[in-house]
Write a structure and sequence with these properties.
It comes from Leuconostoc litchii. Belongs to the D-isomer specific 2-hydroxyacid dehydrogenase family. GO terms for molecular function: NAD binding; oxidoreductase activity, acting on the CH-OH group of donors, NAD or NADP as acceptor. It holds the Pfam family 2-Hacid_dh_C. Helix 6 links the parallel strand 6 and strand 7. By secondary structure, the chain is an alpha/beta fold. A seven-stranded parallel beta sheet has the order 8-7-6-9-10-11-12. Strands 2-1-3-4-5 form a five-stranded parallel beta sheet. It contains ten helices and twelve strands. The chain folds into two domains: 109 residues, 3-Layer(aba) Sandwich (Rossmann fold); 175 residues, NAD(P)-binding Rossmann-like Domain (Rossmann fold, 3-Layer(aba) Sandwich). The protein is elongated and about 70 Å long.
Length: 314
Amino acid sequence: MVLLLAVKAITEENREFLSKYDINVVTPDTITEEQIPEVLISYAWDNELGQKILANPKSKLKWIQAQSAGVDYLPLQKLQERNITVTNASGLKAVPISQTVLGYILYFARGLNVYTTRHHWEPFTNQYLMSELPVLVFGTGHIGQQIAQAVKALGGIVYGVNTSGRPVPGFDAIYPIFDYQEALAKAQVVVDGLPGTKDTENFFDEHFFQQFNQLFLFINIGRGTTLNQEHLLAAIDDSRVKYAALDVTTPEPLPKNHPLFERPQILLTQHTSWGEQKNAGRMGGLFRLFEKNVPSFMFNGTFVQNVVNLSKGY
């Protein structure tokens, strides 16, 4: 019998599915000291309990299903040394996040930000069509591709940036992350969808914001650590960036009276771009991703999707 630690709640239907593969479920509340080294699969990650499992020399842990697309909160080096596989939740919330991004763009492009605070009759017509605001997306995975699809559906132009410049369907052009300047020169909207790694920390900094005269909109739905917020504020204040929409920040939650709250040009959505009704909650629908890997893992220890490269961190 294989032991799975369900850090996040699973349903009776989920348990029935797992039982078909002789997988027994324990939770942080029910696990015993004797069972800690027996855990083979961790469904989501609890750092305190997880470290206890890893510290046990007899630990059988082989697979962690992360509860998010980003995995920067996991002890990646230790997991790599132990040959433990991590699968992430990439793509789980791609549709709601992409619709939020589209909402950001339309909010500013169609002048809705002006009318939300205008309480007198003064028509505002300095508006844009999607086709007039080329979009550059950093990160061409599940979320980036869904954003591209949403933008194209409204007649927009969308460019993508990934590590190597490899082609990805749905984009008008793809550029490598070390040579994106041509695309940046064409863009009016930049979407930060980068993962949180050492290589991407403060990627969007003063140097980045000095590469253009005025950007219409900067969006961050990736990781707060990828953006130097002080440098963004400086770019907002000197009009190099006209507007910004941030779903992720550093820290979270932001303290009261933080400068990001005080700029009317900035829209903050407090890490909720993933929200939806059908699969409510940040992890809603996670088991659907997880269960696709169960048959192959139980058969021969392999995985069919969402395997994280522990060296790269995504």
